[in-house]
């Protein structure tokens, strides 16, 4: 029987509904990030940089692009005969088939996969955070404390602590109490959703709690282990970590990559971020163009002016077009004479000549003010915007739109324009 010291289980099935139209057709971990990456590249790269060569990726919602991206794991050196990367969707069983209903339920349904490696330890990860972490250091901490469960925690401002699972610890970092989203937090150590379990403890807890509806680590497995008196410790992490679960945090995290001294550095030699790269020609920047403080992906052609923006691969920006403070994803075409301000434009979009996006005063979005906010103009993938129209802030556009959708050639701030059809 194969024996691995530690295997990783990467939860990548989330819909990411707070990212609005960006995740209508794609799971959140497969959303583009930083010009050439996808969000899942970060935890996967952390695994291989930490010496973990066996990763189960649990997919569910819109998995096609994620599965294609991961493939057999070659970019991460995870194409192994024993171990490597395995995509684990929900599957038909002879009795009681079901979708993954909670984070821990997804792990429970893959007990046989984990058992096949007879691991000492299991690392549980989310597929939708941007950070660099050496899981080997966390494992050393787990072993040194003879822990059954180690939870990665991060200090947060106490006023934000009520949004997280909060750990209360003693002087040796042993967890004495655990509170899920407390109204009056007594600690600021927030769970990052990164756990190391000793395999026997995890297996026993999953089986014991299997009948709980929407079986979840924060609500069921962690409290169960605590009630059994297991040794549980908090591993404090103090470097960059970003949950890119909202459009604003996603926009901010991309913008932070292009700071003069970026807090999160993609260019470090010793901790590389790996991704599946298509074979593309180099970028082309024309003689009339201006590019300042940007990331420009391979295969892109820039004829206009681009400031403080993250541009994906294979993007075309036409002449006399000005793009500021925006994220333009792969294979999107922007015509001539456009103005794009604080836009998030998804993959394979076509914006025709003379379009203004993100102009005027702010107004709250009419359908989802909690999602489309902070002045960002969001365009879903494979959308089409006809020439010469002016589009406001806090808007969302999805689908193939026509001039008739823009009364007087405008879409005022706060409007939602969701149409059928998509560009092929």
In short, what is this structure?
By secondary structure, the chain is an alpha/beta fold. Helices cover 16% and strands 27% of the residues.
Write up what this structure looks like.
- By secondary structure, this protein is an alpha/beta fold.
- Helix content is 16%, strand content 27%.
- The chain is built from eight helices and 33 strands.
- The strands form six sheets. Strands 1, 4, 5, 6, 8, 9, 10, 11 and 12 form a nine-stranded mixed β-sheet that branches. A seven-stranded parallel β-sheet has the order 15-18-21-24-27-30-32, with no helix packed on it. A seven-stranded parallel β-sheet has the order 16-19-22-25-28-31-33.
- It starts with 5 loop residues before the first strand and ends in a 6-residue tail after the last strand.
- The mean pLDDT is 89.
């Amino acid at each position: 029987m194969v024996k691995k010291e530690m295997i990783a289980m990467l939860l990548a099935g989330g819909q990411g509904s707070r990212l609005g139209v960006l995740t209508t057709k794609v799971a959140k971990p497969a959303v583009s990030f930083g010009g050439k990456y996808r969000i899942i590249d970060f935890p996967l790269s952390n695994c291989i940089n930490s010496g973990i060569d066996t990763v189960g990726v649990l997919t569910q919602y819109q998995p096609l692009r994620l599965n294609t991206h991961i493939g057999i794991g070659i970019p991460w050196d995870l194409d192994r005969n024993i171990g490597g990367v395995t995509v684990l969707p929900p599957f038909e069983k002879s009795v009681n088939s079901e979708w993954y209903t909670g984070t821990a339920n997804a792990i429970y349904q893959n007990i046989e996969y984990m058992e096949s490696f007879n691991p000492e330890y299991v690392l549980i990860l989310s597929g939708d955070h941007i950070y660099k972490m050496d899981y080997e250091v966390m494992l050393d901490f787990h072993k040194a404390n003879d822990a059954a469960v180690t939870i990665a925690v991060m200090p947060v401002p106490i006023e934000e602590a009520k949004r997280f699972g909060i750990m209360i610890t003693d002087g040796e970092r042993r967890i004495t109490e655990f509170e899920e989203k407390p109204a009056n937090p007594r600690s600021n150590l927030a769970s990052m959703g990164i756990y190391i379990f000793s395999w026997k403890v995890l297996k026993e807890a999953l089986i014991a709690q299997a009948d709980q509806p929407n079986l979840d680590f924060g609500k069921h497995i962690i409290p169960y282990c605590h009630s059994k008196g297991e040794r549980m410790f908090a591993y404090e992490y103090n470097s960059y970590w970003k949950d890119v679960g909202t459009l604003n945090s996603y926009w901010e995290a991309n913008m932070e990559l292009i700071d003069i001294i970026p807090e999160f550095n993609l260019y470090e030699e010793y901790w590389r971020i790996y991704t599946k790269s298509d074979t593309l020609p180099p970028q082309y920047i024309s003689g009339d163009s201006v590019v300042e403080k940007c990331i420009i992906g391979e295969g892109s052609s820039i004829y206009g002016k681009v400031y403080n923006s993250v541009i994906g691969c294979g993007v075309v920006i036409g002449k006399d077009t000005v793009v500021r403070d925006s994220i333009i994803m792969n294979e999107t075409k922007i015509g001539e004479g456009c103005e794009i301000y604080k836009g998030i434009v998804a993959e394979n979009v076509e914006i025709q000549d003379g379009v203004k996006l993100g102009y005027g005063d702010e107004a709250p979005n009419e359908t989802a003010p909690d999602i489309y906010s902070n002045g960002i103009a969001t365009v879903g993938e494979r959308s089409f915007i006809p020439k010469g129209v002016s589009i406001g802030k806090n808007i969302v556009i999805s689908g193939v739109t026509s001039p008739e959708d823009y009364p007087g050639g405008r879409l005022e701030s706060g409007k939602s324009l969701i149409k059928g059809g998509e560009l092929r």
